[in-house]
């Protein structure tokens, strides 16, 4: 499988693991020096990412990837997330790879749908 297809699958696996509450799978996908940024978080480290960004209880019913593109070491993804309470929102994310693992994620919040 070429790098583009491998990285596309890694991105899909990341969102599936989030939906299934599989921190163990995600931990294996991230570099040790992974950083996460969003309008609420500025380059937080891996440990803080798991503390802040992983809900204690299931939160989502579905996460549907609407757009996914990979160019070299970067991927862009647009998705729609549906919460268990029936609300939903769309976000864009930029992911940076180092080798076969994700080194950074930057989230751009979208609107509620």
TrEMBL record:
SnoaL-like domain: from which residue to which, for each copy? 11-104
The record's annotation in Gene3D superfamilies points to: 3.10.450.50
**UniProt name for this protein:** NTF2 domain-containing protein
What is the organism field in this record? Answer: Rhizobium etli bv. mimosae str. IE4771
Supply the source organism's classification: Bacteria, Pseudomonadati, Pseudomonadota, Alphaproteobacteria, Hyphomicrobiales
